[in-house]
Design goal:
It is found in: Cytoplasm, Cytosol. With 94 residues, this protein is mainly alpha-helical. It is built from four helices and two strands.
């Protein structure tokens, strides 16, 4: 995203969160520099955590230099999101 300095991008997570890996991979694929900040994700949540939740693919669209994570077609994008949610559900279920 134009005009965003590397120190402005912060990844907020607790050290045991398995879902942050997906975010870190996405940022690296988009070549976005970031600062990793350990925060407690349980209640009460920090103010910075509550106000921060961008979507990497929309924030850092780089005019085709790297691939998009989701298809442009709304139907295909919904299918991709369904399968991502399904995998997340199955990987976290006991």
């Amino acid at each position: 995203m134009a005009g965003v300095a590397a120190e402005d991008v912060k990844v907020l997570s607790d050290p045991l969160n398995p879902f942050v890996i997906r975010v870190l991979i996405a940022l690296r694929l988009k070549r976005v520099e970031y600062e990793f900040m350990e925060v407690q994700l349980a209640e009460p949540k920090s103010k910075i955590l509550v106000k921060s939740n961008p979507y990497i693919d929309k924030e850092w669209f780089d005019n085709g230099r790297s691939s998009s994570f989701l298809p442009a077609n709304p139907y295909n994008r919904a299918i991709a999101r369904f399968w991502a949610a399904y995998i997340d559900d199955k990987s976290t279920s006991p």
